[in-house]
Write a structure and sequence with these properties.
The complex is a heterodimer. By secondary structure, chain A is mainly α. The relative contact order of chain A is 0.18. In chain B, strands 1, 2, 3, 4, 5, 6, 7, 8 and 9 form a 9-stranded mixed sheet that branches. The chains are: A mainly alpha, B alpha+beta. At the A-B interface, α2 of A face α8 of B.
Chain lengths: 100, 223
C-alpha cells in the first residue's frame, strides 16, 4: 500500500514539476501550498484534472474542486486514493493548513 | 446607441474564431447544464493589485473616458462593443490593462451603485434578489493569450475589492460547473461560497431553469 502511494505521489509530483511549475517556482518544496503559491492556476487545474483522470481512470467532479483536495501533493494523492475506492493512506509529509 | 445586432454579430464571429463553432453550439444548445450560484462576503476581500503590477498589468475602471480616450484600446473588438453597451445601460466595469491594451474585463450591477441601470436579466433566472448592499458580477473575460498566472482570479478579486471600497457588503455571481477555470478561480482561489446549483436547459433563445440544490434560495439580505 505504501509503495503504491509512493509511486502515485511521485507521479503526481513529477507531473506538477514538469508541466505546471514554471521558472518562478524553482524553489518549490513538496509541502508548499499549491494554491497559495499559485503553482496550480486556473489553466493548471484543467491540465492536472485531465492528467489525474487519465492516469488513474477516475472522474473528479466539480464538487470536489475545493482547497482541501488540491492544496498539497499529498492532498491530491488522498483524493485519488479515495476515488479509487481505497482507504486514504497516512501521508508521510505534514499537510500545510489552508487559511481561509 | 449601440447597435445590438452588430455587437452580437461581432461577438459570435470572434467567439467562433477563438473557440470554434462546436463550442459556440454548446453555448446555445444544452440540456440540464449545471450552474453554480455563488456569493462572497466582501469583508474578507483584500487588494491584490501588487500581483498584477508584477505581471506588468494594471486594474482600471471602465468609463466613457477610457473608451473614447486614446490611452487604452480593447484587444478584442466585441469586448469594446460590449463595454459601450454595458456603460450605456448604466452598469459598472473593471478591466485589466497591459500597457495600453485592455486584455480582460468584468461587469457588475448594484442597486445602489447602478441606480439608473435596469436590473440585470440573469438575476431572474438565477433567483437572486439583491439588497442595497449587494452587487451581481458577470461576464468575466480574459484574452486567451493572457490566461494563466491567475490573471482572471486577480481580476475577479480586485473587481469585488473595488465594490467593497464603495461600501458594498456582498457580491453574487454564477459559473457553469463544466467551466473548471471559473469554478477554480471563484471557489478555490477567491473563496466564493456556493449557495445553490441550478440545472439549465437551453435551445437557442429558449431557456428552462430548475433548482437542483439550494442552501439559500433567496438572499437573506434582500428586502
Amino acid at each position: 500500500m505504501r509503495d503504491r502511494h509512493a509511486i502515485d505521489t511521485h507521479m503526481i509530483e513529477e507531473f506538477i514539476r514538469s508541466e505546471l511549475i514554471r521558472e518562478r517556482f524553482t524553489k518549490f518544496k513538496d509541502t508548499d501550498n499549491l494554491i497559495e503559491t499559485g503553482i496550480i492556476d486556473s489553466l493548471g487545474i484543467q491540465r492536472l484534472l485531465l492528467y489525474l483522470e487519465a492516469a488513474f481512470s477516475i472522474h473528479i467532479s466539480d464538487d470536489e474542486l475545493i482547497p482541501d483536495n488540491f492544496e498539497t501533493i499529498d492532498a491530491i494523492c488522498s483524493l485519488c486514493w479515495e476515488k479509487l475506492g481505497q482507504e486514504s493512506v497516512p501521508v508521510e509529509r505534514s499537510l500545510k493548513p489552508y487559511h481561509s | 446607441m449601440i447597435d445590438v445586432i452588430t455587437m452580437r454579430s461581432v461577438q459570435i464571429y470572434e467567439f467562433i474564431k477563438l473557440n470554434g463553432f462546436r463550442t459556440l453550439l454548446k453555448e446555445v444548445v444544452y440540456w440540464r447544464r449545471k450552474a453554480i450560484v455563488m456569493m462572497i462576503d466582501l469583508d474578507g476581500v483584500h487588494d491584490r493589485s501588487d500581483q498584477l503590477r508584477r505581471l506588468g498589468m494594471e486594474l482600471i475602471e471602465v468609463t466613457q473616458e477610457i473608451l473614447t480616450g486614446k490611452k487604452y484600446h480593447f484587444a478584442i473588438k466585441n469586448r469594446y462593443l460590449k463595454a459601450l453597451h454595458y456603460l450605456e445601460k448604466g452598469y459598472g466595469g473593471q478591466a485589466i490593462a497591459k500597457k495600453d491594451e485592455i486584455i480582460g474585463d468584468i461587469w457588475h450591477f448594484s442597486p445602489r451603485k447602478s441606480s439608473n441601470a435596469p436590473k440585470h436579466p440573469d438575476l431572474d433566472w438565477l433567483g437572486i434578489e439583491l439588497s442595497e448592499d449587494d452587487a451581481y458580477c458577470w461576464d468575466l473575460f480574459v484574452m486567451p493569450t493572457e490566461r494563466g498566472n491567475n490573471v482572471s482570479g486577480i481580476l475577479q478579486n480586485n473587481a469585488v475589492y473595488s465594490l467593497k471600497q464603495n461600501g458594498l457588503k456582498r457580491a453574487y455571481g454564477f459559473c457553469w460547473a463544466d467551466n473548471v477555470p471559473a469554478v477554480w478561480n471563484a471557489r478555490v482561489v477567491n473563496k466564493w461560497k456556493d449557495i445553490k446549483t441550478l440545472k439549465v436547459s437551453r435551445f437557442l433563445f429558449f431557456k428552462h431553469v430548475c433548482v437542483h440544490s439550494s442552501r439559500m434560495v433567496r438572499s437573506r439580505y434582500a428586502k
